[in-house]
Amino acid sequence: MVFLLAVIAVGGHVLRNMGSLDSDKERAAKYGGRSCYSLQRDAFISPEELLSFPDRTTGGSSGFGRFFKRSPYAPARELPKATLTKNDFTAVPSAYALYWLGHSSVILELDGVRMLIDPVLENAAPFPGIVRRYTASPIERKELPDVNAVLITHDHYDHLEMATMRALKDRDIRFICPLGVGARLEGWGIPPEQITEIGWGDVVEVASVRITSTPGIHYSGRSKTDRNKTLWTGYAIRGERKNIFWSGDSGYGELFKQIGEKYGPFDLACVEIDGWNAGWPNTHFFPEEAIAVCEDVKAQNMLPVHWGVFDLALHPWNESIERVAALAAADSIGLVTPLMGERIVPGETETRTWWREYPDMTR
What architecture is domain 2-361? Predict the structure, then answer.
């Protein structure tokens, strides 16, 4: 009986964590006229088809079972960080500042507007104990400061965390997310009037900050049965004096030159650098492609994101940042690499190659 109750409890938690979805009819009615949505497939469609070559997968088995044990590619010890509390944030957000919280989670301040992007502070899976973090988040949920907006790029577990969304649901916050993800948020208790869904090319304004949804080559879903039932996005975030590109998860394609022409140049490009593998060659950027994205969107500086927390692609935890650092130096791209939790003004604050300062961190 105890075992049965435990199974029921775990099953219920997994279902809650997956989140709600619009029905087939609701999706057709809401998104049927969108070029990014296919009525025939009842799915959102990538600008380029995602490729998969299981026989070319490098680094070991890509099976789900690997997430139940500690990654052999993890650092040998806890990574350095600057621990944050509410007291570390000013009551009025600054004109320009950024805190990288690890992986793709960031607190961005622009024009006195504070935004929280893809906040995953603990778990990147349907239930605890799998997809283990290399290192703890520099901030706990209860210590998150007041924010004006939460931006979500897509509904994968390493970008959308139920527990963090529920922790924010009673605050006066605007939640900006791709088409279809609003149902996830509503199911976790966020009032629908606080949710703004956007598709590629749509614009949302938060005070003086103009936020535009940009396309990517990727996919969505939180289970085997809901692939591409929601959209995924990047963001062009323009303030009065600074313009920032957030790539979101994507494979490389010509669309980034189009983003650069339409929305650039950018003062800062926050670009994913990890998650690549020959077995899924256009689902994430390879390091060389991350640099190409910065060039395509005409970015002066680059903040590497989507690294340092989870093993999602079967390579050493610091391989991506090492390769990107070398490539950025060769291409004269300003690389911005703060410690997790460190407050910086991108392009002004000098950051370090901190991952090289601890030789015993690599196995």
Answer: 4-Layer Sandwich (3.60)
